[in-house]
Amino acid sequence: TMEELCNLPYDDAERPDGNECEEAAQRVDVDTHMPALCARARDHVAAVMARCPQQPAALQQGRRTYRLSQTNAISWSDASCNDSGFHAFYLDRLFEYRAEEVARALMKLRLDHPAVLHGWDGRAVLRVGSIGCGPGCDLFAAREFCHTFYGDSDVILTGADYAPGWGNLFPPEWQFIPHGLDLRAGPAALAALLGRFADLDLLLFSHILFDVARDAGGLPDYFWPAVHSAHPHALVLCVERIARWPTRPPRAIQLWPGRDKDLVVLPPSLAL
């Protein structure tokens, strides 16, 4: 048990303190859910690949596109996100990893800050949206999280991405919006995008917000007010590196203190 682990005969200099024992217990609690989630992620990918079979040449091209993008030789926006070979390689290479990453963040939030999610208990419907969703790794993770801990709730998933090809990979019950996030387009464009979603309980930004903020010279002052105005009850989970953000958003929880990743932004309507 964790209590036994924390009471092993360490030298004084090596004995973990109470915080380290608590963190270890949390990792154990989260890790118990991961094998089943990852197995379901692989099943999801297999089902998508079966619907959208690819020739070996297309898969090889997708692999080359991905490798070029990793060296910044090209951008994923250069038609790659609408290329079926790139889709297949992304699903095979990244879907499970990205889904696990988002699921771990949500479980960490539930463990460390349960009051934030108290309003989800007993809800008939939970609405989750993702901006820059790609093939829906983050939506899949949110669905699994909701089914694990809020099993009686109906989970409605909606993703938005500038590349409409990603929508072809969505299950029929998921909703896809062919609309991207470009902060250079101004507040009206952001409001229009946010308005395409029904009132959300959870809004996901997975590996996108830093990039679009960088392209726009930083997050504009109107960004968080626009999000809160459109979705006043939504938690916002940003899964990515955050240290280089120009400013921290208001009412934010850093999930992994001391590590350069992952924020949850609380809605102003949430009274703790």
List the helices and strands and how they pair.
Layout: H1 2-6, H2 18-31, H3 34-51, H4 56-70, H5 84-112, E1 125-131, H6 137-149, E2 154-160, E3 175-177, H7 187-194, E4 202-206, H8 209-215, H9 223-230, E5 235-239, E6 252-254, E7 263-265
Helix pairs in contact: 3-5, 4-5, 5-6, 7-9
Describe the structure.
The chain is built from nine helices and seven strands; from the N terminus they run αααααβαββαβααβββ. The chain starts with a helix and ends in a 7-residue tail after the last strand. α3 (34-51) runs antiparallel to α5 (84-112) and α5 packs parallel to α6. It is α/β, with parallel strands linked by helices. The protein has helices spanning 2-6, 18-31, 34-51, 56-70, 84-112, 137-149, 187-194, 209-215, 223-230; strands at residues 125-131, 154-160, 175-177, 202-206, 235-239, 252-254, 263-265.
